[in-house]
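Appendix C reproduces, verbatim, an entry submitted by the partner laboratory led by Prof. M.T., so that reviewers can inspect both the input and the predicted structure.
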Amino acid sequence: MSVLHVHAENGSDSNPGTQALPYQTLNKALGEAWLLKQVVPGQPLPLVQITVHRSATPIAPATHGGHESAGWQTTAEISAGVTHKPFPLRMVKGVDVVGSSRAQTKPEIKIDENLFGAFPGSSYEPGYPKTWVWMASNMTLFGFRLSGEEYDLSRATHALSAVYVKEVSNASIDECDIVDFHDGVYFYAGLSSDSSTQLTVSGSVRNSHLENFFPTVADPLLPQDKGHAAVWLKGPGILDVDIISCDFEECHDAIQTGGEIESGLATEANLDVIGGTFVGIENGIEVVGKGRLTFTATDSTFLRCKNLPEGVDPNVSSTAAMLLRGMNTLNGMVRGCTFENNAYSILWNLNPTAPSTLNLGTSLDHGLNVFKPFDFNIPLSEDTYRVHVVQKSIAGLPTRISAWGNTWIPGNQGADAAGCLTSASVLIGPTNLPNLLVNDGPPGPFAGEFDSIGVPWSRNYSILEAGGELDVGEDCP
């Protein structure tokens, strides 16, 4: 394997790129890696890796104390006189870019507000979104800190994302810290040039920390300072994304799938979330738009996924650990997850055109999910809604939730003192039966919602509209 080394503080682009004599800029190493990866007839494709060493100097333009001043070019681009700006950093197919797994030694890639020319809205590179790193196929970005904190006041106006993964395969972001952007990792799959064929993107985000894709200034309602999603799946193509062992904090959405239709073709997405931690987020997993989604969430914790931060109306009801309100077809499976002090734990609100099912456990495969009691010490202004599973199927085909073998709020809606359901029942909407609105206190001034002192009641589940079916299974996990 050929290993090219980069040290932004002590290197030089006139060096050979060895560990003893590293390059100074990552763009120089990327260009050299591209040359090494070119196929030589009769020769195997070489293995190439770039190692970026931590230094006091970030991977950044001069305006942020770095040395990146020009992008790299292919041979054809050089011959044609095509040049690129230093960002986005264009990754090379099959070339891993490696930093460090230790937080204190991770190289930093820093944003530069001046990259985009005169504000507002100038595009700095045709065909590129406003992003910091452009991924390639069959490669990993490992062990970096990507920081957009100095771009704070413009992150929504200019829709800046940290990493763009467009129509490539097997692209992985691993052991990275991504903070303070409008979007973190943006997966996009579109259509062929004649709009007749769906294109595909596949990739993963692993072992990473993603934080602050949320308003942060004094007035969080300012439109120029709204964050969006730490991980965003979008486009009318085919998306296959894994999110493994990542933790999310203070995001508008931690993970959002935004389905869309173009030229009669609709999003087809597969999302697997394994071992995630979601804390202080408006929506942990949000599904909106049109198309078809299959998702699984396993061994993950959702804590305080609820209303917006201070300065925003606390009575926003569509916030949840899992806000599933889009797609023509949505089939999900949730296993071994813990839900605690969210506004809603799971809000299932579809208008499907094909049968859709949410599997929280079956009689043969228990869900092993834990729906914890709500903390009544949380002020009403911070937590207006306390319902674990809400089924709202509107004007479409029937949708079904199966929920066997979970632990619920003890003593609530048929659950015993251990939180186990001792008998199975199938609940079909529309209904206003007491067992769907059983609460912790007597009727109050707002029927079915608040008790006599204005504190919301906690509920295990509720069906509010027609077309929904909830199979509440017996047995403890």
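The CA atoms of residues 212 and 426 lie 41 Å apart. Additional entries are available on request from the coordinating office.
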